[in-house]
Amino acid sequence: MKFIELIETLRIAWGALIANKLRSFLSSLGVMVGIFIVIMMGWLLDGLDGAMNKTFEILGEDMLFVDKYDWTGRKKWRDVRNRKNLDISQAKQLKEMHTSAQYIIPNMNKWGGRIYYKGNQLDGMTIVGTTYENAYTPAGDLIKGRYFNIYEDEKSKNVVILGHKAYKAIFPDGDAIDKVIKIGAWKFRVIGVVRKRGTFIFDYIDNQVFIPLGSFNKVFSLRWKSLSIGVKAGSIEKLDEVRDETIGHLRSIRNNKVGEEDDFSINETKAFAAQTEDIRRNVWLVGIALTSLSFIVGIIGIMNIMFVSVTERTKEIGIRKALGAKKREIWMQFLVESSFLSFMGAIIAMLSCSVLVALVSFIIPDYIPEADFLKPYLPVEFFLIASLVSIVVGIFAGLIPAVKASKLNPVDSLRYG
Question: 26-43, pLDDT tens digit by residue?
Fold first, then answer.
């Protein structure tokens, strides 16, 4: 089709769309819904990938966490529950034996802890007992103050670093540094505040507060609890080497026999990658099902309108054929028209998505801070993909009517109406 013919065909398509606004809108409604779902699904998954990457940063991509429990939940709970606890002596032995890890950091958690400040009680906190070396992990990224040092660690000083949610809840209008809070019956001086790190995948992380491990033992006792041991490799490249050495030393420390399964778990960011992949797959399945249904409805709607258009313009087709128009030119005209109709539906969907994304990104973070993984804009490639898909859908919708129009007998067509 020559360029001038394409322009003329688009002009005719535009004229038909303007002349039958409601009919055109209803016929392309399925395409609008389908494109809307495709774009919003892509936006959500793009944000999900961003949240996943942020979660990796929170935990540290070069970090391993040795635990009694398996984060993925793939192990049988009964078997995991019956494992021996990891204790501080085992953490010390691992630290002495390890040669490839940068840091070995024992951690003890008290879930659902309480913090008191000037008569106010804050529930649902995770009290973490750890060592000064935790400052070299992502948990050491502070916005105020400092981390406790080796002296405060070894002397079990009552100092505390607040997670971001704890800080905002207790000190919404003021500086927390050097203020005194109570954990249990013990007073702790605030010396630092951790930067906001939580995502919707890992939202509890901002509810943590950190104290020296010896101080944790004074308040809660380490005797009946299992440690989690953070192992910092120093780089992603060393992760496999550090993992293998960690497993080997721990099997020896915990007297695991040859051929016997490990009675501990090595947890890392891959556990969350698997979790996110499940979410992605579910979003895709639902999105593809809804999109396919919408496109089927859209194809049927546009196809019906194109059949009506062929009937209405039968005489026009007869005149064009009588003047020498070829079959290719006739069916190309109707294919372009159906694609144009589908594309206009996609334009409306893209504009709607842009407005919705802007509104959601502006309003939601105020109420759900963990939703900050959603980008306030749509990538350009989404619009390109949506445009291409809408044109392909339009071609499919107009194919049969276009073939029917191109096969009309000019003599019969001229007598029509």
Answer: 778 888 888 888 888 888
